[in-house]
Request: fold
Amino acid sequence: DVKVTQSSRYLVKRTGEKVFLECVQDMDHENMFWYRQDPGLGLRLIYFSYDVKMKEKGDIPEGYSVSREKKERFSLILESASTNQTSMYLCATLVPDGTDTQYFGPGTRLTVL
Amino acid sequence: EDQVTQSPEALRLQEGESSSLNCSYTVSGLRGLFWYRQDPGKGPEFLFTLYSAGEEKEKERLKATLTKKESFLHITAPKPEDSATYLCAVHKTGSARQLTFGSGTQLTVLP
Reply:
């Protein structure tokens, strides 16, 4: 079974705080993704990584950065959280079986006050 | 511009009342179309991948079909536990494994 874990299910932060969201997969997968999900907007890709220290911007990278120091861990960083970053954040990993299927973690519901 | 549109936005069914959810897409070269199920407050759970027009996949009460412009998720004799949001996503050729998601159909099955 594909297992993707995220560090927190719920998180409440203040405006201006630096926020770290962690995602871990234990399957040695190369490709990992960060999405945010908002009502009516669906899932939107923030960043993805195709290998250690490699990253690519997605559709909405503004206000976010990422870190991939080890293959199993992909971190999303909000340098200075703002209220419009209140959202559900979802991490995914791509199984390298030729099917292009992404498997998701349980999500982190972030509220910025 | 790539677009994925799901309809209806919300659907309420009585238990046992079969129906279909629609996912229409416009992409320049489809590599794969994915269906996910998402329960409230949880991450999406993978259901099916379809790669070419005419392909069909089944799992329990769910059956996914694909044409050149749209996909349908047919739900036969649904049960209350099928209540969830169903998401459709497309992967287009040359997109470095990025998926474009629709905004989902929220299905409620009443007992």
Remarks:
- The longest strand of chain A covers residues 42-51.
- The radius of gyration of chain A is 13 Å.
